């Protein structure tokens, strides 16, 4: 006698989700608005009918280093604008977990790129400087303290001087260092006070 017997092979969760990259290196411009898409992590699972959920590893926080990850797609978005001057890099661990609890991991390295979002600072040790009447051309009148938190051209400064024609005929400023120097001899009996305005400008766009 022959008997037909049907067997149903049940699915066993043999595999954990596996990301298509062990490390994701993602550059991000600072000051982009919240909600901006910056990348995506993708994992696959060889088990049939596997459902993968993405989240940050070792934390229940929905936001890590200013980033959110979509639980269903692995898409990474900004939760807030990033500031390079506060943090230039960040390393984030992301996990992909199937419905049975098997988990795979990847690393996301963020590098925040500079934009020209900081104005130069410019101060002089003294706002009122006394210059000897017998000082000659080339005499250093004042040296500024100047800086810019931005990088590259965004933080590269040039200096200029504004004032009356008579003031500009007596004083000059080094466009690179900001050092103010005497351009020609002084005559206190003719003019005893000169007013000048020094400006620092960065080279960013």
Task: Give a verbal description of the structure.
- The model has no long low-confidence stretch (mean pLDDT 91).
- The chain is rod-shaped.
- 2% of the residues lie in helices and 37% in strands.
- The longest helix has 4 residues, at 165-168.
- Strands 2-9-8-5 form a four-stranded mixed beta sheet, with no helix packed on it.
- It has one helix at residues 165-168; strands at residues 18-19, 23-29, 37-40, 43-44, 53-56, 67-69, 75-78, 89-97, 103-113, 121-123, 140-142, 145-147, 157-163, 171-173, 180-182, 196-202.
- It is mainly β.
- The protein contains one helix and 16 strands.
- The termini are far apart.
Strand sequence of the main sheet, in spatial order?
2-9-8-5
- DSSP helix count? 1
Give the fraction of residues assigned to helices: under 10%
- Basic shape: rod-shaped
Strand content: 35-45%
Structural class: mainly beta
Number of strands: 16
Tell me, rounded to a whole number, the average pLDDT. Answer: 91
From the alpha-carbon coordinates, what is the Rg to the nearest angstrom?
32 Å
Determine the N-to-C terminus distance: 89 Å
């Amino acid at each position: 006698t022959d008997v037909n017997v049907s067997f149903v092979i049940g699915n066993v969760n043999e595999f954990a989700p596996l990301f298509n990259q062990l490390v994701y290196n993602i550059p991000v411009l600072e000051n982009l608005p919240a909600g901006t898409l910056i990348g995506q992590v993708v994992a696959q699972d060889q088990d049939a009918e596997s459902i993968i959920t993405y989240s940050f590893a070792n934390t229940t926080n929905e936001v890590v280093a200013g980033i959110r990850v979509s639980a269903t797609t692995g898409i990474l978005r900004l939760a807030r604008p990033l500031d390079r001057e506060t943090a230039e890099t960040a390393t984030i661990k992301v996990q992909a977990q199937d419905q049975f609890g098997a988990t795979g991991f990847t690393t996301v390295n963020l590098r925040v790129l500079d934009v020209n979002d900081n104005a130069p600072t410019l101060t002089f040790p003294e706002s009122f400087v006394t210059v000897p009447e017998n000082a000659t051309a080339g005499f250093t009148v004042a040296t500024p303290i100047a800086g810019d938190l931005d990088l590259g051209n965004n933080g590269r400064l040039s200096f200029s001087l504004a004032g009356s024609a008579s003031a500009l005929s007596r004083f000059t400023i080094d466009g690179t260092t900001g050092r103010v120097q005497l351009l020609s001899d002084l005559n206190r009996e003719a003019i005893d006070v000169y007013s000048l305005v020094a400006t620092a400008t960065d080279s960013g766009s």
